[in-house]
Design goal:
disordered N terminus; eight-stranded antiparallel β-barrel; alpha+beta; 8 helices; globular
Length: 241
């Protein structure tokens, strides 16, 4: 466990530095009002929000506040659409969830937002999440990469609650530098995940009570995916595989 802790500290330092480094990209001038224009239906609002989020995922040039507003609008209107036909909405998510997704934008957990003064930003590292809903148990992976090389990667399984659009998951294996694979308890993995930025401190609390980590899925299609984590943060992923 000693070298796992050292690795966690190293990755945490990288993550912390990345989160506190100012963006050097030039963002388009875009007001939040443009992303929250009232339209006539949940479907129209969803389409409008997704257009901005797709641009953000492709370029990382959209204003972070506008991206956050689009995520909040998408969440609100997807909830409305979900109520119209919960089964069909959930099936659509599961039909699209399998594949590889790169984390593009995150508000961080509520705890992290408090520490950063509420600032939101594009995720600076290459973090890839993989899902396979075509097998049982369903497979989930989460890792930080340098190029194609995995620095640290977690693997486990997940279940999907169609009634609430909720994914519940456990990681029980950690892979270091693409070479060393170690099976660990859920609590140990949750602790390392929280320290590296790949998970939240709330996951540790859930593990202590025998409950699984979770996040509420908002949308998934052939370009982007969005969700709200168990720690309260919103996230945007870009499909990469």
């Amino acid at each position: 466990m000693r070298y796992l802790s050292l690795l966690a500290v190293a990755v945490t330092a990288i993550t912390a530095t990345a989160f506190t480094t100012p963006l050097t990209r030039t963002h388009r001038t875009l007001t939040v009002l443009q992303t929250t224009t009232v339209t006539t239906s949940p479907e129209a609002n969803i389409e409008q929000a997704k257009k901005l989020l797709v641009r953000a995922a492709e370029t990382k040039l959209e204003n972070p506040d506008a991206v956050l507003s689009a995520l909040e609008s998408l969440e609100k209107n997807c909830k409305s659409k979900f109520k119209q036909d919960p089964s069909a909405f959930s099936r659509d998510i599961m039909d699209n969830i399998s594949g590889e997704w790169r984390l593009v934008f995150t508000t961080g957990t509520k705890e992290r937002q408090k520490k950063s003064g509420g600032r939101v930003n594009y995720f600076p590292l290459k973090a890839i999440q993989k899902f396979d809903a075509t097998v049982e148990p369903k497979i989930i992976e989460n890792g930080i990469y340098v190029g194609e090389f995995p620095l640290i990667r977690f693997a486990g399984d997940f279940d999907f609650d169609e009634r609430r659009r909720k994914i519940e998951f456990d990681f029980d294996m950690i892979e270091i530098l693409g070479l060393i694979k170690i099976n660990l308890s859920r609590k140990d993995v949750a602790k390392i995940g929280a320290s590296t930025g790949l998970g939240s401190a709330n996951n540790e609390k859930l593990a202590d009570t025998g409950r699984r980590a979770f996040f509420d899925w908002i949308s998934a299609d052939d370009q982007i995916a969005t969700a709200r984590g168990g720690g309260g943060g919103l996230a945007l992923w870009k499909r990469v595989g």
